[in-house]
Amino acid sequence: MSDTPTTPIEFRRYTQNLSPAIPIAIQQATGQFFEKRNARVAELPEWELLRDVGHRLRLHTLEHLDAYLEQAATSLSAAGVQVHWAMNGAEANAVVLDIARQHNVKTIAKVKSMATEEIALNTALQAAGFQITETDLGEFIIQLAGLGPSHIVVPAVHLKKEEIAQLFKEKLGVEAPPDPEQLTAIARARLREVFLAADMGISGANFLVAETGTLVMVTNEGNGRMCTTLPDLHVAVVAIDKVVPDWESLATLLKLLARSATGQKLSTYTNFITGPRKTKGEHGPRELHVVLLDNGRSRMLASPLTRETLKCIRCGSCLNVCPVYKQVGGYAYGWFISGPIGAVLTPQLLGTKIAAELPYASTLCGACAEVCPVKVPLLDLLRHLRRRVAEGDATTTPIVSPVLRGVARGSAIALGTPWLYRLGARLMPLLQVPVRRGNWIPSLPAPLNRWTMVRPFMPFRARFRRWWKHHKKNE
Amino acid sequence: MTQNRFPNPVLDAVRHSLGYESGAPLPPHPLLPSARAAGTPQAEIALLLQEIDKVSGHTQQLTTHNLDTALGALVETENIRTATVWNTPTLQCLDIAGRLKHLGVTLVPPDAEKHTLAQCDLGVTEADFAIPDSGTLGLLSGPEKPRAVSLLPAVHLALLTPAALRPDLHQVFAEAQHHGYLILITGPSRTADIELTLTLGVHGPRELYVWIFESPGE
Amino acid sequence: MHVQLFITCLGENFFPEMLESMTTLLERLGITPCFPSEQTCCGQPQYNSGFEAEARSMARRWMRTFSHSDAPIISPSGSCVEMVRHYPHLFPEGSEEHTLAIELAARTFEFTEFLVRQLGVTDVGAHFPHRVTYHASCHLLRGLGLRDEAKRLLAAVRDLEFITLTEEETCCGFGGIFSVLYPEVSGAMLENKVRHIIASGAEYVVVGEAGCLMNIAGGLHKAGSAIHPIHLIEVLAAQGGA
């Protein structure tokens, strides 16, 4: 479980001394996902059309989110679901705790849910003395390790099988060979006991259908079904941006999600749950609660640009293609969500004071925006948030250091005033003489050594204006 | 939709941000792509079986004449000692429960308590829907179709007839949305959480068998 | 046909030969370039760093410089052209500056874009008898959507042997301010790029963007590689040997 950061996230400090094992593991994993995703996308000549539909559908829903939320709540209630509203994580956790206490819950089985990571639900439940077990294999592993997820889809991707075997030995007391199949079998056996014993299942939802009040869960392992079918009590924490208008929209969104996330046509188990069970014999919970979570999203709806952040369907494609994420892994982003979407969501949910470094943790290469199945305008958002950090806006004061602000002003003057600029172009070749070594400037004093610590700098050699004068004369 | 039946700060905050008046009419949502057109029934069946194979399911086309042989082979291959079967008309008509008993398998009622069901080696269901181009089965639930039958046992056998075929998700959703539960199953359970190595059979069934009957029972 | 040369601050200060090549190549194609001497920098560093007010003042100066003539504006840098295409966002809709920005952006082109899409030319009569690999700069590729223009131009260069670079489209790690904010990550990304370039077995690595070129050239030098980094325009202007 990732705790909510309360001090500034330090991307630079985290990435200064990274073990080379991290990019190796991440690149292998993301490479595989991306290859599969590309194969599935190539099969669909209408992929760009689907992306466009996905974008318009999600945007339409967000633009009318009040109406769709009301419709969802009405449908949920009509289906026998108890609906709760939570402005923030504390309220959501309090609701879940309350439900657990009221039902005298002893064992909780949990399905992977980004929303519950966001609000650190597990921490709150454990602090109150509840036993809660993550049941997705990847989440089960990182729970044992006391870590948060490092990738949206495969949370334990950065761990090697040897490390996992060691972890099982230490925390589960079993001799585990470093073999994925056998490690999975151990987890299966352990978790089966949890599924059968659990009196409460907690999940999130990939989508919530407004028209019918249906929770949609996209999974592969079967634990999602276990946690939402076997216990008598099921609680789903659903962020308000998960709402979709109707089942018809799901046909497009599920195709986009499965192919983008794991390169599958459809995930192994896609669950559609409308209300608690109608009869005892058919299995399913007797009681179903849905907690609708805001946690800063309503604020993001206010501007047309930031609103588009909420279109995200959490597929992880942007992570799989981001050269920065692939170099540093998920933990560098300081919270439960990482990669390009993390770089734009975290500053909006937690504020720029905490997440000022994140919008800059990108080369603006654009690979993410190219693959996003719902066309989240990631580059525009990154630049918008950089403006927030550098200049401040309606929501916040600038964070950037006076030094950087001075450099920006100074450079605008030096580069923006023709005579100063031309003078600089002529002066720099002289000023660089002490540091020039042949065709290179191998090192510069701080803070300019931030360039030369990686590679040498090129010498200034402006001469076009002189050449042009000659050239025109000789015509 | 126009009354605020759920007075709460979340909805207020959403409305405030969007700047809409509560109760403004909802414009129609964007046009969606049309569903895939169906091929011939034989082509659809062939595609379905091919796609299920791709996701590591085991497929067979059967008639009532070779059903016993197939069940016998399944019982032996997967070492089935206990089984549970849905009480649907088709499965009753085919007398799956009876045939399994005949093979020495102990039958457990499908709505049994979860710990009992968890001891079953085999769960037999019918598929209400089958989507060929992704090899997907759709199962509704009900008192005669309990959910855990396709979940707890290690082996899941799903029978279906061509009547279950639907060209695309759109048609399945149009029908299924009025029911309280739908599970779309594409292959046996799997994970790639450990070093991205694909492992089949995590929490859900480890084996998925899909048998198609041209004409279920005369 | 007349064009205005937009030489860019990086081009002017670090790649003078490339600018000279660009000029003479355009003339060989029958184009008359002119050079508005008041030009400085397009404001991209400020804009991408979040200093929009500063970027706006630079945009104003740029627009003043290039609006004296009606001629199209040609630049050797895709990222600078992309910046100019963002100029309309800097001014309120309906304002005079907004209108001017739209008009100018519509006639500002990156060099390969101008050749292939505007002039319909892919063979510029170049001769470059070497083994060459190509790094596809992010702004050219994704920013401006120029997927194959550079390659079509390279394909027409006589005796040039083209070797596809592994992960050709992956960012080299420059990213403007990124390179100095997160040097360790930038360095690691550069190392990956350099590794692939060395593994290609090419004699030259061709790059269409000055920022990438500075980054990659530095990386190759640090790695002790004999592979020559060269700007795309210099290859296109080459008339046999380099």
Descriptive report:
- The complex is a heterotrimer of chains A (475), B (218) and C (242).
- By secondary structure, chain A is α/β, with parallel strands linked by helices.
- Among the domains of chain A are: 41-298, 3-Layer(aba) Sandwich (Rossmann fold); 402-473, no CATH class.
- Chain A is built from 24 helices and ten strands.
- In chain A, the strands form two sheets. In chain A, strands 1-10-7-4-2-3 form a six-stranded parallel β-sheet, with helices on both faces. In chain A, strands 8-5-6-9 form a four-stranded mixed β-sheet, with helices on both faces.
- In chain A, helix 2 (21-43) packs across helix 12 (247-262), helix 3 (47-63) crosses helix 12 (247-262) and helix 21 (402-416) crosses helix 22 (418-431).
- Chain A is elongated, with a radius of gyration of 26 Å.
- The model of chain A has no long low-confidence stretch (mean pLDDT 93).
- Chain B has seven helices and eleven strands.
- Chain B has a six-stranded parallel β-sheet, sandwiched between helices. In chain B, strands 5-6-8 form a three-stranded antiparallel β-sheet. A two-stranded antiparallel ribbon of chain B has the order 9-10.
- The longest helix of chain B is centred in the N-terminal third of the chain and has 14 residues, at 41-54.
- The chains are: A alpha/beta (475), B alpha/beta (218), C alpha/beta (242).
- Chains in contact: A-B, A-C.
- The interface between A and B is large, with 103 and 78 residues.
- Strand 9 of chain A pairs antiparallel with strand 8 of chain B.
What are the key terms here?
heterotrimer, A: 475 residues, alpha/beta, Rossmann fold, six-stranded parallel β-sheet, four-stranded mixed β-sheet, 24 helices, 10 strands, 10% strand, elongated, B: 218 residues, three-stranded antiparallel β-sheet, 7 helices, globular
Q: How much strand content do the residues of chain C show? A: 5-15%
Residue share in helices of chain C?
A: 40-55%
> Termini distance of chain C?
29 Å
Instruction: Point out poorly predicted stretches of chain B.
Output: none
**Alpha carbon gyration radius of chain C:** 18 Å
Indicate how many domains the architecture of chain B comprises: 1
Radius of gyration of chain B equals 21 Å
Query: CATH-wise, what's the superfamily of chain B?
Result: NagB/RpiA/CoA transferase-like
**How many H/I helical runs of chain B?**
7
Structure classification of chain C: alpha/beta
Largest sheet of chain B: 6 strands, parallel
- What is the CATH architecture annotation of chain B? 3-Layer(aba) Sandwich
| Chains forming the largest contact | A-B, 103 and 78 residues
Binned strand content of chain B = 15-25%
Extended strand count of chain B: 11
